[in-house]
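ok trying this again, last paste got cut off
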Amino acid sequence: MQSIYAMHQNNSDNLEKEEKFLFQSIDNILDLYLIMVSAMVELRNSEEDFIEKSRRKHLATPEERNPNRKFINNKVLRLLSDNNSLSIALEERKINNWKHNDDYILILLEAVKESNVYKNYMHNRENNFEEDRRFVHDLFTEVIAPNEKLYDYLEDHKLTWVDDIPLVNTIIIKQLKQLQPEGKDAFAVPKLYKDIDDKDFVKSLFRKTVLNEVELAKEFIDKTPNWDADRIAEIDAILLKMAICEFLKFPSIPVKVTINEYLELAKEYSTPKSSIFINGILDNLVREYQNSNKLVKTGRGLM
């Protein structure tokens, strides 16, 4: 949707260029994920460095000589720090943002220490995996993810990440909820695509929508008698074209799935009444296609 919208705004007809940008934007989601996960590792490393420096001070206090190491001994943070899947991904994709921007880690660490999540966790010095897992989950959800300084950094670093942050945070929170101390579910960096068909779908939907925009628009223009084509919000028109493209050119995608997906996009990105407008048009089109046998879906339960 965003890529097609960008093409319209730029009056671009360079399909290859825009498709390349689309896949690059998707690829960047993994970098954002790695940056967010590695922030937790760097928070632990930064605190460990601070504790060691404080302990070695000439006039160190008794508390500095015998600090509460519960945070840096957190079993989940250590698991992430030692995880091969994460280390390999960070190395392969050259993710070293926090090495060059450690001031943001210090800002985050200060926010962590000021939080009730941290203070409640540090009331004793004992570590157990379940408490450590809950703490990291709550810390990420309540302190790290909502941090405005971190958000500003991510927005400045790559503008396309603004819309990806909620998705990435949701994935990380889900992983933290399911984390196990060992075995196959301990931790693994997720794949960008479920399989090759998943990636092919991205390309196919983009190309089929762009190359058939005129024909797809004709499917709904005469279904909106109270709206001139120029009065339909551009995002709404794009969403309608994409949905109709799925109806007619993707027989394996259930109609209800298509409608639900595009109504959610309309609620997120378009006008307050867009989802009602789009829902009405798509419902009418589905009935028309069914009556004319134009809607061909394969497999069970796809209508």
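PB: full thing came through this time. The chain has two domains: 26-178, 196-291.
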